[in-house]
Design a protein that fits this description.
Blueprint: H1 27-33, E1 51-57, H2 64-74, E2 81-88, H3 94-101, E3 108-113, H4 119-129, E4 134-137, H5 149-158, E5 163-170, H6 177-194, E6 206-209, H7 210-214, H8 226-232, E7 236-242, H9 256-275
Parallel strand pairs: 1-2, 1-4, 2-3, 5-7
Antiparallel strand pairs: 4-6, 5-6
Helix pairs in contact: 6-9
């Protein structure tokens, strides 16, 4: 099946290409150029890589050094790759620590948001700036194991052409009892309503095609519904068991109560999007 995407939201490499036909940018172009997602970010296609790993972080200064080195080791055999950390308005020295790491890790790129705008926006910023057509995401707290990255990539590459996403499933959660219980309840409600086959929608370790991600309509908290939205757009989704580790430093940015409040609103919105989609069709130029 062909995937023509959506024109409701702008995305893709075109956002980073210089204007070829017009000398004076439009008012919309000037507004976009000044926006958070485009300020100082360039997707240089002449420096394309095989793989881009995108890591959103917020106040993770103690975790990013070990995590970045683990990622570099895990993808060493994946061809030319890059690691993009997107600092989402940290106030604990995360940005400075990332900048210092660049001397030791030549493949590391650091993008910094001027203020905190949320995990989904940080992922989107990283994907848009990525030079690879294959993207891997994982959380910046160190609980996702970078050693699982090759497993997800193998599944994505040997899958059918319509496979857009491989999502990790944490086989053994290393969280508190209350968090595991809240997650189990949340996933049960989600599955009853959305029927997308996701048993662990909160796992941050995912591998997907960049073009598939950019075909999705964007909204805050999209990262929790990537599985649903990929299926909605006509892509297939596979699941792979992955490791999960205890957090060594810092604390979670979310509480169970916060997840419940935003989750209800998001679920209803995503269900609406599911019901508002017309049947997929193949598009070809004649």
């Amino acid at each position: 099946m062909g995937h023509s995407g959506t024109t409701l939201f702008l995305g893709g490499a075109g956002l980073y290409k210089a204007r070829a036909r017009f000398d004076r940018p439009s008012r919309l172009d000037r507004k976009m150029a000044a926006s958070l997602d485009h300020d100082g970010i360039e997707r240089n296609l002449s420096m394309a890589v095989a793989l881009s790993v995108v890591v959103p972080v917020k106040d993770e200064a103690e975790n990013i050094g070990p995590l970045a080195r683990e990622i570099a080791t895990a993808i060493a055999d994946q061809g030319e790759s890059e690691i993009l950390f997107v600092d989402d308005g940290s106030s604990d020295g995360t940005a400075a620590a990332l900048h210092a790491l660049k001397a030791d890790l030549p493949s590391l790129r650091v993008i910094s948001h001027a203020h905190n705008v949320g995990q989904s926006r940080a992922i989107r910023t990283g994907v848009r700036a990525a030079r690879g057509e294959i993207i891997v995401t994982l959380d910046g707290d160190g609980q996702n194991d970078p050693a699982d990255i090759p497993k997800l990539l193998d599944e994505l590459r040997r899958g059918e052409a319509s496979l857009g996403l491989v999502s990790g499933v944490r086989a053994k959660r290393r969280d508190t009892t209350s968090r595991r219980l809240a997650s189990r309840i949340g996933n049960g409600v989600r599955q009853w309503l959305l029927k997308d086959g996701a048993v662990d929608s909160g796992c941050g370790l995912k591998a997907f095609k960049r073009e598939a991600f950019l075909a999705l309509p964007y909204f805050d908290h999209l990262h929790r519904f990537l599985i649903t939205m990929m299926i909605r757009e006509g892509y297939k989704v596979h699941f792979v068991d992955v490791n999960h580790r205890p957090r060594l430093h810092g604390q979670s940015k979310y509480t169970n109560f916060h997840r419940m409040l935003v989750g209800i609103d998001d679920l209803l919105g995503v269900r609406w999007l599911q019901r508002r989609l017309r049947k997929q069709t193949e598009a070809k130029e004649l």
